[in-house]
Amino acid sequence: MKSTWKRRVIKALLAQKFKNSGPISKYTSNDVSMQINRFRVSVLSTTKDIFLIALGVISAAFGLESFLLPNMFIDGGVTGISLLVSEITSIPLSILILLINIPFILLGLKVIGKRFAIRTTIAISALAITLFTIPFPEVTQDKLLVSVFGGFFLGAGIGLSVRGGGVLDGTEVLAIFMSKKLGTTVGDAITIINVVIFLAAAYFLSVETALYSMLTYLSASKTLDFVIEGIEEYTGVTIISEHNEEIITMITHKMRRGITIYQGKQGYGNQGHMDQIDIVYTVITRLEISKLNNEIEKIDPNAFVIMHSINDTRGGMIKKRSIGY
Description:
Blueprint: H1 2-17, H2 29-68, H3 77-89, H4 93-111, H5 114-133, H6 143-163, H7 171-182, H8 186-204, H9 207-229, E1 234-240, H10 244-254, E2 260-268, E3 273-284, H11 289-299, E4 304-310
Helix pairs in contact: 1-2, 2-5, 2-6, 3-4, 3-8, 4-5, 4-7, 6-9, 7-8, 8-9, 10-11
Protein backbone atom coordinates (compact mmCIF):
# COMPACT_ATOMS: atom_id res chain seq x y z
CA MET A 1 0.00 0.00 0.00
CA LYS A 2 2.79 2.42 0.98
CA SER A 3 4.82 1.45 -2.06
CA THR A 4 1.86 2.20 -4.35
CA TRP A 5 1.35 5.58 -2.69
CA LYS A 6 5.04 6.45 -3.11
CA ARG A 7 4.97 5.47 -6.75
CA ARG A 8 1.94 7.68 -7.37
CA VAL A 9 3.69 10.62 -5.72
CA ILE A 10 6.86 10.09 -7.72
CA LYS A 11 4.91 9.71 -10.96
CA ALA A 12 3.15 12.97 -10.21
CA LEU A 13 6.50 14.64 -9.58
CA LEU A 14 7.86 13.24 -12.82
CA ALA A 15 4.85 14.52 -14.70
CA GLN A 16 5.24 17.97 -13.13
CA LYS A 17 8.93 18.06 -13.97
CA PHE A 18 8.39 16.96 -17.55
CA LYS A 19 4.84 18.20 -18.06
CA ASN A 20 5.43 19.03 -21.71
CA SER A 21 6.90 15.61 -22.51
CA GLY A 22 3.75 13.47 -22.48
CA PRO A 23 1.41 11.55 -20.16
CA ILE A 24 2.39 10.05 -16.81
CA SER A 25 1.94 6.52 -18.15
CA LYS A 26 5.02 6.89 -20.38
CA TYR A 27 7.32 6.63 -17.32
CA THR A 28 8.52 3.11 -16.76
CA SER A 29 8.77 1.23 -13.50
CA ASN A 30 12.52 1.74 -13.64
CA ASP A 31 12.07 5.53 -13.88
CA VAL A 32 9.78 5.51 -10.87
CA SER A 33 12.12 3.28 -8.85
CA MET A 34 15.04 5.54 -9.66
CA GLN A 35 13.14 8.63 -8.53
CA ILE A 36 12.02 6.90 -5.33
CA ASN A 37 15.63 5.97 -4.56
CA ARG A 38 16.84 9.51 -5.23
CA PHE A 39 14.09 10.93 -3.03
CA ARG A 40 14.93 8.48 -0.23
CA VAL A 41 18.66 9.22 -0.41
CA SER A 42 18.01 12.97 -0.45
CA VAL A 43 15.73 12.82 2.62
CA LEU A 44 18.09 10.57 4.58
CA SER A 45 21.12 12.70 3.67
CA THR A 46 19.41 15.95 4.68
CA THR A 47 18.17 14.44 7.96
CA LYS A 48 21.64 13.16 8.77
CA ASP A 49 23.23 16.54 8.01
CA ILE A 50 20.72 18.39 10.20
CA PHE A 51 21.37 15.97 13.06
CA LEU A 52 25.16 16.35 12.77
CA ILE A 53 24.98 20.15 12.65
CA ALA A 54 22.62 20.24 15.66
CA LEU A 55 24.91 17.93 17.64
CA GLY A 56 27.90 20.03 16.62
CA VAL A 57 26.23 23.25 17.75
CA ILE A 58 25.42 21.80 21.19
CA SER A 59 28.95 20.43 21.64
CA ALA A 60 30.61 23.70 20.60
CA ALA A 61 28.28 25.79 22.79
CA PHE A 62 29.01 23.53 25.77
CA GLY A 63 32.77 23.86 25.25
CA LEU A 64 32.55 27.64 24.98
CA GLU A 65 30.13 28.37 27.84
CA SER A 66 31.20 25.70 30.33
CA PHE A 67 34.97 25.84 29.86
CA LEU A 68 36.52 28.64 27.78
CA LEU A 69 34.45 31.77 28.35
CA PRO A 70 34.27 31.66 32.18
CA ASN A 71 38.05 31.19 32.39
CA MET A 72 38.97 33.82 29.76
CA PHE A 73 40.55 31.28 27.41
CA ILE A 74 40.34 31.57 23.65
CA ASP A 75 40.75 29.33 20.63
CA GLY A 76 42.10 29.91 17.15
CA GLY A 77 40.15 31.18 14.18
CA VAL A 78 37.01 33.28 14.14
CA THR A 79 35.87 31.67 17.40
CA GLY A 80 39.10 32.82 19.03
CA ILE A 81 38.64 36.35 17.69
CA SER A 82 35.08 36.39 19.05
CA LEU A 83 36.24 35.17 22.48
CA LEU A 84 39.06 37.73 22.57
CA VAL A 85 36.80 40.65 21.62
CA SER A 86 34.19 39.47 24.13
CA GLU A 87 36.78 39.47 26.93
CA ILE A 88 38.01 42.95 26.01
CA THR A 89 34.67 44.66 25.34
CA SER A 90 32.14 42.54 27.31
CA ILE A 91 29.96 42.25 24.19
CA PRO A 92 27.98 38.96 24.35
CA LEU A 93 29.76 36.11 22.59
CA SER A 94 26.59 35.07 20.74
CA ILE A 95 26.42 38.44 18.96
CA LEU A 96 30.11 38.51 18.12
CA ILE A 97 30.15 35.00 16.64
CA LEU A 98 27.29 35.95 14.36
CA LEU A 99 28.67 39.34 13.28
CA ILE A 100 32.32 38.39 12.81
CA ASN A 101 31.41 35.35 10.72
CA ILE A 102 29.26 37.34 8.24
CA PRO A 103 32.22 38.38 6.00
CA PHE A 104 33.48 34.81 5.96
CA ILE A 105 30.03 33.48 5.00
CA LEU A 106 29.93 35.93 2.08
CA LEU A 107 33.47 34.86 1.14
CA GLY A 108 32.38 31.22 1.33
CA LEU A 109 29.49 31.99 -1.02
CA LYS A 110 32.00 33.28 -3.55
CA VAL A 111 34.79 30.74 -3.05
CA ILE A 112 32.88 27.50 -2.32
CA GLY A 113 29.22 27.84 -3.26
CA LYS A 114 25.64 28.66 -2.32
CA ARG A 115 24.82 25.35 -0.61
CA PHE A 116 27.83 25.67 1.69
CA ALA A 117 27.01 29.29 2.53
CA ILE A 118 23.40 28.45 3.42
CA ARG A 119 24.34 25.55 5.70
CA THR A 120 27.09 27.59 7.34
CA THR A 121 24.67 30.44 7.98
CA ILE A 122 22.22 28.03 9.59
CA ALA A 123 24.94 26.40 11.73
CA ILE A 124 26.45 29.69 12.96
CA SER A 125 23.02 31.20 13.62
CA ALA A 126 22.03 28.11 15.59
CA LEU A 127 25.24 28.38 17.62
CA ALA A 128 24.57 32.05 18.40
CA ILE A 129 20.98 31.30 19.44
CA THR A 130 22.12 28.38 21.61
CA LEU A 131 24.74 30.52 23.37
CA PHE A 132 22.15 33.25 23.95
CA THR A 133 19.30 31.08 25.21
CA ILE A 134 20.82 28.06 27.01
CA PRO A 135 22.70 28.71 30.29
CA PHE A 136 25.45 26.06 30.36
CA PRO A 137 27.02 25.60 33.81
CA GLU A 138 30.71 26.16 34.47
CA VAL A 139 32.32 22.74 34.87
CA THR A 140 35.77 23.47 36.28
CA GLN A 141 38.32 26.23 36.93
CA ASP A 142 41.35 23.99 36.56
CA LYS A 143 43.31 25.61 33.73
CA LEU A 144 44.65 22.39 32.26
CA LEU A 145 41.22 20.74 32.23
CA VAL A 146 39.67 23.87 30.75
CA SER A 147 42.25 23.92 27.94
CA VAL A 148 41.99 20.24 27.08
CA PHE A 149 38.26 19.62 27.43
CA GLY A 150 37.19 23.06 26.21
CA GLY A 151 39.18 22.41 23.05
CA PHE A 152 37.83 18.86 22.84
CA PHE A 153 34.15 19.86 22.87
CA LEU A 154 34.73 22.85 20.60
CA GLY A 155 36.71 20.77 18.08
CA ALA A 156 34.12 18.01 18.16
CA GLY A 157 31.38 20.54 17.50
CA ILE A 158 33.18 22.08 14.54
CA GLY A 159 34.01 18.63 13.16
CA LEU A 160 30.42 17.40 13.41
CA SER A 161 29.21 20.53 11.64
CA VAL A 162 31.74 19.98 8.85
CA ARG A 163 30.41 16.43 8.54
CA GLY A 164 26.96 17.99 8.12
CA GLY A 165 28.09 20.23 5.27
CA GLY A 166 28.67 23.53 7.11
CA VAL A 167 31.17 25.14 9.46
CA LEU A 168 30.96 26.96 12.77
CA ASP A 169 34.17 28.88 12.16
CA GLY A 170 34.93 30.89 9.02
CA THR A 171 38.71 30.57 9.28
CA GLU A 172 38.81 27.64 6.88
CA VAL A 173 37.05 29.73 4.23
CA LEU A 174 39.59 32.55 4.63
CA ALA A 175 42.44 30.03 4.53
CA ILE A 176 41.16 28.58 1.23
CA PHE A 177 40.88 32.09 -0.19
CA MET A 178 44.40 33.02 0.97
CA SER A 179 45.85 29.79 -0.43
CA LYS A 180 44.44 30.66 -3.86
CA LYS A 181 45.56 34.28 -3.80
CA LEU A 182 48.98 33.89 -2.14
CA GLY A 183 49.90 30.41 -3.32
CA THR A 184 50.22 29.05 0.23
CA THR A 185 48.72 25.83 1.54
CA VAL A 186 45.51 25.92 3.58
CA GLY A 187 47.43 24.70 6.63
CA ASP A 188 50.00 27.51 6.32
CA ALA A 189 47.24 30.11 5.98
CA ILE A 190 45.46 28.85 9.12
CA THR A 191 48.77 28.89 11.03
CA ILE A 192 49.42 32.52 10.03
CA ILE A 193 45.93 33.57 11.13
CA ASN A 194 46.23 31.82 14.49
CA VAL A 195 49.71 33.22 15.22
CA VAL A 196 48.26 36.73 14.91
CA ILE A 197 45.33 35.81 17.19
CA PHE A 198 47.53 34.32 19.93
CA LEU A 199 49.94 37.27 19.82
CA ALA A 200 46.95 39.56 20.32
CA ALA A 201 45.80 37.37 23.24
CA ALA A 202 49.25 37.64 24.84
CA TYR A 203 49.12 41.45 24.50
CA PHE A 204 45.53 42.09 25.63
CA LEU A 205 45.12 39.27 28.18
CA SER A 206 48.38 37.67 29.36
CA VAL A 207 51.17 35.44 28.11
CA GLU A 208 49.94 32.61 30.38
CA THR A 209 46.43 32.86 28.95
CA ALA A 210 47.83 32.85 25.42
CA LEU A 211 49.86 29.71 26.15
CA TYR A 212 46.87 27.89 27.62
CA SER A 213 44.81 29.06 24.65
CA MET A 214 47.38 27.48 22.30
CA LEU A 215 46.86 24.23 24.17
CA THR A 216 43.11 24.67 23.68
CA TYR A 217 43.67 25.15 19.96
CA LEU A 218 45.83 22.01 19.72
CA SER A 219 43.19 19.98 21.55
CA ALA A 220 40.43 21.35 19.30
CA SER A 221 42.37 20.75 16.07
CA LYS A 222 43.25 17.15 16.99
CA THR A 223 39.64 16.44 17.93
CA LEU A 224 38.50 18.07 14.68
CA ASP A 225 40.84 15.81 12.66
CA PHE A 226 39.60 12.77 14.56
CA VAL A 227 35.92 13.57 13.94
CA ILE A 228 36.40 14.35 10.24
CA GLU A 229 38.91 11.64 9.29
CA GLY A 230 37.78 8.95 11.72
CA ILE A 231 39.77 6.43 13.70
CA GLU A 232 40.54 4.04 10.87
CA GLU A 233 42.72 6.31 8.70
CA TYR A 234 42.39 4.57 5.36
CA THR A 235 45.51 3.76 3.37
CA GLY A 236 45.76 3.30 -0.39
CA VAL A 237 48.20 0.56 -1.39
CA THR A 238 49.75 0.11 -4.84
CA ILE A 239 51.51 -3.22 -5.41
CA ILE A 240 53.79 -4.15 -8.30
CA SER A 241 54.89 -7.76 -8.28
CA GLU A 242 55.66 -10.68 -10.58
CA HIS A 243 53.30 -12.77 -8.43
CA ASN A 244 50.19 -10.66 -8.99
CA GLU A 245 47.79 -13.58 -9.21
CA GLU A 246 48.73 -14.86 -5.76
CA ILE A 247 48.58 -11.36 -4.27
CA ILE A 248 45.15 -10.73 -5.82
CA THR A 249 43.87 -14.02 -4.39
CA MET A 250 45.28 -13.16 -0.96
CA ILE A 251 43.66 -9.69 -0.87
CA THR A 252 40.25 -10.81 -2.11
CA HIS A 253 40.00 -14.10 -0.19
CA LYS A 254 42.09 -13.77 2.95
CA MET A 255 41.71 -10.02 3.63
CA ARG A 256 38.33 -9.76 1.88
CA ARG A 257 39.08 -6.42 0.27
CA GLY A 258 38.28 -5.12 -3.18
CA ILE A 259 41.00 -4.50 -5.73
CA THR A 260 41.56 -2.51 -8.90
CA ILE A 261 44.02 -3.68 -11.55
CA TYR A 262 45.79 -1.20 -13.81
CA GLN A 263 47.67 -2.10 -16.97
CA GLY A 264 51.13 -0.57 -16.82
CA LYS A 265 54.73 -0.82 -17.95
CA GLN A 266 57.97 -1.12 -16.00
CA GLY A 267 61.39 -0.22 -17.28
CA TYR A 268 64.92 -1.07 -16.22
CA GLY A 269 68.46 -1.33 -17.56
CA ASN A 270 70.58 1.03 -19.65
CA GLN A 271 68.51 0.35 -22.76
CA GLY A 272 65.26 1.28 -21.03
CA HIS A 273 63.69 -2.12 -21.58
CA MET A 274 59.91 -2.01 -20.98
CA ASP A 275 57.67 -4.85 -19.84
CA GLN A 276 53.90 -5.02 -19.53
CA ILE A 277 52.76 -5.54 -15.95
CA ASP A 278 49.56 -5.54 -13.89
CA ILE A 279 49.46 -2.97 -11.09
CA VAL A 280 47.29 -3.92 -8.12
CA TYR A 281 45.58 -1.21 -6.08
CA THR A 282 43.56 -1.67 -2.88
CA VAL A 283 42.40 0.38 0.11
CA ILE A 284 42.77 -0.90 3.67
CA THR A 285 42.56 0.53 7.17
CA ARG A 286 45.60 1.47 9.19
CA LEU A 287 45.04 -1.54 11.45
CA GLU A 288 45.45 -3.89 8.49
CA ILE A 289 48.78 -2.55 7.19
CA SER A 290 50.89 -4.97 9.21
CA LYS A 291 48.83 -7.97 8.09
CA LEU A 292 49.01 -6.95 4.44
CA ASN A 293 52.78 -6.43 4.61
CA ASN A 294 53.27 -9.84 6.18
CA GLU A 295 51.15 -11.56 3.54
CA ILE A 296 52.96 -9.80 0.69
CA GLU A 297 56.31 -10.74 2.25
CA LYS A 298 55.27 -14.40 2.21
CA ILE A 299 54.33 -14.26 -1.47
CA ASP A 300 56.97 -11.93 -2.91
CA PRO A 301 59.68 -10.33 -0.72
CA ASN A 302 60.78 -8.22 -3.71
CA ALA A 303 57.35 -6.71 -4.38
CA PHE A 304 57.32 -2.94 -4.85
CA VAL A 305 54.70 -1.48 -2.47
CA ILE A 306 53.57 2.16 -2.28
CA MET A 307 51.30 3.40 0.51
CA HIS A 308 49.58 6.75 0.98
CA SER A 309 47.03 8.11 3.44
CA ILE A 310 43.38 8.62 2.47
CA ASN A 311 41.09 10.87 4.50
CA ASP A 312 37.91 8.92 3.80
CA THR A 313 36.32 6.43 1.44
CA ARG A 314 32.83 5.79 0.13
CA GLY A 315 31.33 2.53 -1.07
CA GLY A 316 33.45 -0.44 -2.06
CA MET A 317 34.53 -3.11 0.39
CA ILE A 318 36.16 -1.01 3.13
CA LYS A 319 33.39 -0.10 5.55
CA LYS A 320 31.41 -3.20 4.78
CA ARG A 321 33.26 -6.49 4.55
CA SER A 322 32.41 -8.98 1.87
CA ILE A 323 30.87 -12.25 3.02
CA GLY A 324 32.29 -14.22 0.16
CA TYR A 325 34.03 -13.86 -3.17
